[in-house]
């Protein structure tokens, strides 16, 4: 029981940081869904909260693969290490990202990777938190332009509150923590993939450099 409480509290801590974004305990993809698209490799510019930011997509380096879970490590060659930077080039965050085809659309599954400052955090404190997945739909426009948008957490919250969907979750301090397995997540994604209310406003990404 104590371990479960620690995991849920850690999960809640991370989801509070990612407020507004649908976060899940399990990935949205199975191995068969994952594809690698070299078009993503490179540096991309976008605007968020009226600030210019950058995303850099690289293949996952060999020395970083040990940070992946065992069930994902065997497809690490199909994944990306994505670095988010501010307008000055300062590193904000890094994530392991996998591109997956689910139904008729492509999606990105983001899973946190440690940046240098986080690696110094005491191991005891790290064990009190659990990493979660964040999902985005991605629409490729051409080789130098794609758009991505998050699943809107409030949309799913309303479905749950109105008993319009039955999906496994935990309620912690009034917030829904989605603990459904991958199969159930995919059913939700496919059902609402073309509902504009299920997503936040799209993020327009334009290429700066091609790798």
What's the gist of this structure?
By secondary structure, the chain is α+β, with helices and mostly antiparallel strands. The protein has helices spanning about 1-15, 70-75, 125, 155-160, 180-190, and strands at about 25, 35, 40-50, 50-60, 80-85, 90-100, 105-115, 135-140, 145-150, 170, 175-180, 205-210. The relative contact order is 0.22.
Description:
The chain has helices at residues 2-17, 70-73, 123-126, 153-161, 182-192; strands at 23-24, 34-35, 42-48, 51-59, 80-85, 91-102, 105-113, 133-142, 145-150, 169-172, 175-178, 203-210. The termini are far apart. The chain is α+β, with helices and mostly antiparallel strands and 211 residues long. It has one domain (2-210). The relative contact order is 0.22. The longest helix is centred in the first third of the chain and has 16 residues, at 2-17.
Topology:
Blueprint: H1 2-17, E1 23-24, E2 34-35, E3 42-48, E4 51-59, H2 70-73, E5 80-85, E6 91-102, E7 105-113, H3 123-126, E8 133-142, E9 145-150, H4 153-161, E10 169-172, E11 175-178, H5 182-192, E12 203-210
Total count of helical runs of at least 4 residues: 5
Run of helices and strands = HEEEEHEEEHEEHEEHE
The biggest sheet, with number of strands, parallel, antiparallel or mixed sense and barrel status, is: 8 strands, antiparallel, barrel
Count of β-strands: 12
N-C termini distance: 48 Å
Low-confidence runs of at least 5 consecutive residues: 1-19, 123-128
């Amino acid at each position: 029981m104590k371990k479960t409480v620690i995991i849920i509290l850690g999960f809640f801590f991370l989801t509070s940081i990612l407020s507004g974004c649908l976060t899940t305990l399990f990935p949205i993809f199975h191995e068969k869904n994952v594809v690698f698209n070299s078009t993503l490799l490179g540096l991309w510019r976008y605007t968020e909260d009226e600030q210019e930011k950058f995303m850099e997509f690289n293949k996952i380096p060999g020395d970083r693969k040990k940070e992946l879970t065992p069930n994902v490590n065997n497809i690490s060659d199909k994944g990306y290490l994505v670095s988010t930077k501010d307008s000055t080039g300062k590193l904000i965050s890094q994530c392991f990202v996998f591109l997956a085809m689910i139904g008729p659309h492509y999606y990105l599954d983001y899973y946190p990777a440690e940046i240098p400052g986080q690696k110094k955090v005491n191991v005891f404190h790290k064990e009190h938190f659990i990493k979660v997945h964040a999902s985005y739909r991605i629409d490729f426009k051409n080789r130098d332009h794609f758009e991505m948008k998050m699943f809107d957490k409030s949309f799913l919250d309303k479905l749950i509150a109105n008993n319009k969907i039955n999906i496994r979750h935990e309620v912690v301090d009034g917030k829904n923590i989605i603990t459904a397995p991958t199969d159930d997540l995919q059913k939700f994604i496919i059902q609402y993939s073309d509902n504009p209310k299920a997503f936040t406003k799209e993020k327009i990404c334009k290429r700066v450099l091609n790798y």
